[in-house]
């Protein structure tokens, strides 16, 4: 594992693109180190490599397998210090702005513009002594059940995250996705009661996915909703799996699913337009998606795609960390509570800095 991180440091010092990641509940580290600094794109999702896609637009950046060196390493024990109780001063101006944005969303939902909208904010923290490797190590050991990654391209920037949400897993014509929504603090148990607002919000996500994939699928099965722990918070989750039609392809499925109501809203177009008009900042790759596309399985004739929604993430730039957090807003949302939820979610990244 030491050699793996030496390779990361070398790639970083040479200003060459790379991604390192660890899948949920796995002990294997994977690194894809690009041999040049070109910008490649996933045009039709028939490419092989690691894709990094924005919330809005179609600049799906690809670290291509054929232009990269693949490294793998097993995780070893790590003694890291993650201070769960670290405190950051709250910014009253940020709070006022976000609560006012949420109230706009509540009003628009109540008047029937959409059923739900996901509104977000960006928080900037000074980071004079950032060390990529130590932060990434803290991340993977703090959040064993998340998809943890660090992605870098000299022409785009450095992004780090620990996301609980899978967008899509597919092999041949089989696929798996999830409907994730609703948030509350984890208090030593996952046996919790959920309020009507959260249950409704999560059902919107499930219904949206089922409605939108039915023309592309020939078989679909869903689980009952259950509680999932993600870092210091809980969510409601429903598993959805099935088989695609013979003439359906990966690009169609991704374009139908992304952005999901869990990161955008419902209906998709009206909520996305509201976000672009009212958030007053560019989400960039936050609430986009990332992951392996068409990864060839060792000694098998199959390839797999495994994509995640880019939540609980931050961008590192100019000795600053730009943290991104969002909340699902319905007609029953209370702005002050949504602010508190956004603060709780921001702790996922703050704990490892």
UniProtKB/TrEMBL annotation:
Gene3D superfamilies: Anthranilate synthase (3.60.120.10). It is an enzyme of class 5 (isomerase). Its EC number is 5.4.4.2. One of its GO terms (molecular function) is isochorismate synthase activity. InterPro entries: ADC_synthase (IPR005801), Chorismate_C (IPR015890), IsoChor_synthase (IPR004561). Residues 95-345 form the Chorismate-utilising enzyme C-terminal domain. It catalyses: chorismate = isochorismate. Keywords: Isomerase. NCBIfam families: isochor_syn. Belongs to the isochorismate synthase family. PANTHER family: ISOCHORISMATE SYNTHASE ENTC. This is isochorismate synthase.
